[in-house]
Amino acid sequence: MALTQLLDLPAPAKLNLFLHVVGRRSDGYHLLQSVFVLIDWMDTLHLDLRRDGQISREDLGTRLPDDDLCLRAARILQEVSGCHLGVHIGIEKRVPWGAGLGGGSSDAATVLLGLNRLWGLDWTRQRLLDIGLKLGADVPFFIGGRNAWVEGIGESLTPIELPSSQFVVLKPAAAIPTAAIFSSPLLRKDSPRSTMSVFLADPNKFVRNDLQEAAQAHCKEVDEALSWLSCRVGPARMTGSGSAVFARAWGNPGADGSSVALEQALAALPDEWKIRRCHSLDRHPLWAWAAD
Question: Is 138 a known active-site residue?
């Protein structure tokens, strides 16, 4: 029997364990090296089949822009595949936007993986990756579905095995537009290139985010979040282009997933700041939904 809906599809966030800007292409795009790791802070999507070919969206929480990456992903896949079916997308947004956590890109990847099944396309992962890159540099990572050594503008992915980790992720109220960071005169653009083998030999040497100084100058809340988290959890750094920051969490979590000391400190946080204790994921929950 043909599928008519797919419910409770996860769209996990990511962290950049480090982020180096190693150059710039002739078209202006910056060349990066990074390690992306999936975490269990997730949005949830619901896909309902439409036989009239229309593509629509319903926000089941936080209101999103009228034309977001999910709608664009569905339209591109429909156009490229020649499929005459449509979809109604419901989004329960939990991963904050403007945070450097890749939430919008992850939502788009989940739409592509879900429609690959709902529309009966059975496309390979590589065909979906090609579409994902047209949507944004982070989308291919989530379609690839594994923690990765990332190069280029985000399209060059090499799967990497990482130990299971816990992180405390803190998102201040402010959101940072990525364009503002990459256009900043404070952006470091000349980090030396490295290799995945060098990273694996001593990952503790890879702790810098070349976008962080520009973000701190653009948004004082990034500075405040870094200080707050460093004092209470451990050395903190920014993920992506911010404004979220993170630190590795040590010790045993309490019954609610937070350490007792961290829980006691939450009362001091400004209103509208969000904090989560997250676990790393070995693979995207929908990794098996596209064949390699």
Answer: yes
